[in-house]
Amino acid sequence: MSWTELVGHEPILERLRHALAIGRLGHAFLFVGESGIGKRRLALELAQGLLCRHRPTRELAPCGTCADCVQVAASTHPDVTQIAKPADKHELPVQLIHGLCGSLGLKAARGGHKIAIVDDADLLTVESSNCFLKTLEEPPPQSVLILLATSLESQLKTIVSRCQVMHFRSLTDAQVVSVLTSLELAPDEDEARRMALWGNGSVGRAIQFSSDEWQLVRRLLHDHLSEKPLPSGTLTREVQQFIDEAGKEAAARRERSRDVIRMAADFYRDCLRYQQAGMVHARDSDRAAVEQAAQLFDAETLLDLMERCLQADFHIGRFLNQSLAVDCWIDDLAQLSAGHYVEPIN
C-alpha cells in the first residue's frame, strides 16, 4: 500500500498529515461514506503511516517495505486490531467491543501506537456503542480508534461527538477506472470504464454489479421500472426471490435488499439526467429502458420515485422489517408511477 495509490480522498489525507505535523492527531476517527470507496484502505494506510519504523518524525510517509509496513498490509501486525460483524450475526456483538477496548489498553508490542479499526460501525448496538464511551473519553496513551460507517445517522450522538468525522465522497467514474486498472481488478481499461458505469462512484459496487448475476437482475429491474403501469406483483416476486437467494442470514438479505433499491434509485437518476441534458449515464444495455422511462414520466414523478427509493434504503438500514419494507416500496413505486399520491415515510 502507498499514500500515492489512494484515489479521490486527497483532502482527508491532507487533514491527517497536517494534524500529525502539528502534534494534534486525534485519538478517534469516524470515517463516513459509501461502501467500496476506500475507507478501510485509508484506515489501514493510516495505521501503516503511524507504525512505520522508517518514516520521518511527524510525517505520514510510510516506506512500505519495513516489517511494520508489511505486517499492516497483511493484517498481521500485533499492534493493529481489526473487527467486523461476524458472518453469523446481524450486528456487532458487545463481546467484540469489550475485547477491542481491552486490547487498546495493553502496552504496544513494538512500543509505538496501538490502533483499532472497526468495520461495519453502522451495526453497533446501543450497548456496544456505550461500551466504547469510556475508551473514547479516557483513551489509552498513543491509541487510535477508527470507525468505518456508511451513515452518520446510524451512530449515537455520544459517539459522533467524541470522534473526528471524516466524510468520504463518492469517486468519479475516472477515479473508479483508475483504481480498477491500477489494482488489476479489470482485464483492461475499456472493461474498467464499462464497470465504472455500474459502480456510481464506488469501486466495490462496480465489481459487484458487473457480475452476471447482478447484470441479469439489473435488466429485469430496469425493464419493469420503465413500464407504465409498473407490474408490482411480478416485480415483487422477482425481487423477493433474488433476496431469498442471499440465504437465511438477516444481514445478507438486508444488504441485498438495499443494493436492489439503490440500483432502482440510480435508474431514476439516469432518467432525470436524460430529461435534463439528453445524456444517459448508463451502459448501452440500459439505454433503451432509461429513454423509455424518461418519456413516460415527468421530472416531478421521477424525483418522487427516486426519493421513495432513498427512503426505503434508509429505513431498511435502520432495521425496519426487510420483507415488508420491500413489498411496501414496490407498491409505492407502482402508485407513484400511476400518478397517485403516496404519503411520505417519516
Automatic annotation (TrEMBL):
> What Gene3D superfamilies does UniProt report for this protein, alphabetically?
P-loop containing nucleotide triphosphate hydrolases
The superkingdom listed in its UniProt entry is Bacteria
User: Which Enzyme Commission number(s) are on file for it?
Assistant: 2.7.7.7
InterPro entries linked to this entry = DNA_Rep/Repair_Clamp_Loader, P-loop_NTPase
Database matches in Pfam families: DNA_pol3_delta2
GO MF terms on file?
Answer: DNA-directed DNA polymerase activity
For the keyword Mitochondrion, the answer is no
Keyword line:
Nucleotidyltransferase, Transferase
The GO biological-process annotations, alphabetized, read as: DNA-templated DNA replication
Instruction: Enumerate the PANTHER family for this protein.
Output: DNA POLYMERASE III SUBUNIT DELTA, REPLICATION FACTOR C / DNA POLYMERASE III GAMMA-TAU SUBUNIT
Question: This chain belongs to which protein, by name?
Answer: DNA polymerase III subunit tau
| Species of provenance | Kolteria novifilia
Taxonomy of the source species: Bacteria, Pseudomonadati, Planctomycetota, Planctomycetia, Kolteriales
This chain is encoded by the gene named dnaX_2
